[in-house]
Amino acid sequence: MANQYYEGIGRRKRSTARVRLWTGGNGSVVINDKPGEDFLSREGDLALATAPLRAVAQEAAYNITVKVNGGGVTGQRDAIQLGIARALVEIEPEWRSTLRQGDFLSRDPRIKERKKPGLKRARKAPTYTKR
């Protein structure tokens, strides 16, 4: 039987990550066809992205492939983390409470606020001058 995968979609700010956890793996992480350490090169980013696996003690049980686009490094990292957590819940529904306690299943709704007419940015008003 071929390896099976479980998929989870994660989003954060402008980033979207499609995460696949492959069964029968050795813990390798591939993000956009690059090794995980190369794609998330900042110290601790890869550890934060794969934190849901450690929460359920499954670090080396699955190979992870990710397609992520949009946003910046932090948004992509958090989108990957949410995608991994959602895929784990698909694998084993009993892990939901553990992942919920670790705050891995919460979608952070904060996004950039749009610019308003008459203002310089979303909330910054032009300097007031009396004369």
Describe this structure in words.
Helices cover 30% and strands 21% of the residues. With 131 residues, it is α+β, with helices and mostly antiparallel strands. The N and C termini lie far apart (79 Å). It is built from 5 helices and 5 strands, in the order ββββαααβαα. Strands 1-2-5-3-4 form a 5-stranded mixed β-sheet. β1 and β2 form a beta hairpin.
Secondary structure tally: strands? 5
Count of helix runs: 5
Q: Specify the helix fraction band.
A: 25-40%
Whole-number mean pLDDT? 91
Question: Are there runs of 5+ residues with pLDDT below 50, and where?
Answer: none
Global structural class: alpha+beta
Arrangement of strands in the largest sheet = 1-2-5-3-4
What is the terminal separation in angstroms?
79 Å
| Global outline | elongated
Largest sheet: 5 strands, mixed
Task: Give me the strand/helix succession.
Answer: EEEEHHHEHH
Report Rg.
Answer: 19 Å
Fraction of residues in β-strands: 15-25%
Keywords:
21% strand; 131 residues; 5 helices; elongated; single chain; alpha+beta; 5 strands; 5-stranded mixed sheet
Describe, in short, the structure shown.
The chain is α+β, with helices and mostly antiparallel strands. The protein is 30% helix and 21% strand. A five-stranded mixed sheet has the order 1-2-5-3-4.
